[in-house]
Design goal:
Layout lengths: L1 E2 L4 E4 L5 E3 L2 E9 L7 E9 L4 E9 L3 E4 L20 E4 L7 E4 L23 E4 L5 E4 L19 E2 L7 E2 L4 E2 L5 E2 L16 E4 L7 E4 L22 E5 L5 E5 L5 E2 L10 E2 L5 E3 L4 E2 L5 E2 L11 E4 L6 E4 L40 E9 L5 E6 L8 E10 L3 E11 L7 E6 L5 E5 L6 E6 L2 E9 L3 E9 L6 E9 L1
Amino acid sequence: MLRLIPLALSLPPQSFTTINNMAFHSFGGSGGGEGSGTVTSVSVTTANGVSGVVASPTTTPAITVTLGAITPSSVVASGSIRSATSLIVEETGAGTDIIAIQAPASIAASYTLTLPVDDGTSGQLLSTDGSGVLSWTSSSGGDVIGPASATDNAVARFDSTTGKLIQNGVLIVSDAGAVTGVTTLTASGALRSNTSLIVEETGAGTDIITIQAPSSIASSYTLTLPVDDGTSGQVLSTDGSGVLAWVTAAGDVSAGSNLTDNAIIRGDGGAKGVQTSAVLIDDGDNVTGMASLTLTNTGLHLLDTNATHDLIIAPGSNLTADRTLTVTTGDSNRTLTMTGDASIIGTNTGDSVFNSGTTTRVGDTASGTQTIAHGLGVSPKIVKITALKHSGLSGVIISNSFGGKSVIGTSDCIFSVINTAGSTSTGNASGTYSVRIDDGDGALQTAVITVDATNITLTWTKTNSPTSDTIYIFWEAAS
């Protein structure tokens, strides 16, 4: 049985058409003549007595009639049958259940499906050529059958070996890619993770062991496990190429039940015992607790300020017994500065640096200054100048000047001058000839001594015509 709800028919103007047992007749209206006039009503009567008036008939010039709900035994149309909703097919038995055939709610464009020329063979499928022409084709795939229901995100598995039955699985792959439900995993190739391998304890707990690579490695490498599980107490050792083997540890050292944190351990007699010590190395590499430190005679090596060279403190002579060098700084920081070799003899009180050296001057050089760098870094407290000249006129001429820092707080040195005649004169650097080389007959080279943090300055004055013989100068300075 075919039921039309609603159905649109297009007919030529003023025509009489019988569609199976449905008769369309006597259009009412005015105007007359084929193809003209206005249709005001159309009545429909079927052979089995169903009749009615068609609503809203129009001519443009064909006549389109819209039928109400009619139920003919069959409908044969010479044109298209069109429905604004669906084509409904009722079951052929005694029931009233239907099958509705309808278009999607929206399509990109109208299209036509043309049915095959026959009803095909058992198992064939309708296939389109892409232009709406349908034909019967044999399926190239299988007739796979799955379970009535399945677990969300479960991986499907084949059921038996037919290749046609699918069953539910316990392996779950979440939308984020997390895999759960694996009891045993066997791989024919490598297993790879970009984070870690996690192994859960085998008992009732949920604690895990995570095996992972360092955050950065120089290059990829492979570790190959031993061929067996080794023996008790053995440890894994590598051959340097990643091949691991079980080896026996080098020793079984035993220690006291409690060792001091950060303590250096010492042997405790025998071959395997160790004990704690009072010498500690903390996490900052600071060493404490040493009562004494004995080094070999190669000396104590101290790195310089930029850690490129060593300052070596070493003994300079043999000793007949242990000797003690005591350095007392007082309750403040001290700095020892040395710019040359220095010898300290006897008892010295206070901080002192001693430097000495030699220089020369041509005996008949014109008046002027001569500077000597003393290298103390501070203005010296004591300066001694010894000048010698061999002159053909009067033999060896010696001038010895010696001075000490003024006790009344001036910045000058006070000098005592001893000449070859044995007479002595004193004064300060601003007004006394501290060095005097006398060739006789009024031919002189005299010098006033001044000092600062860098130099000893000799301000020479030439008088008359001294000889050109070399003046040899030996200087000494102490801070």
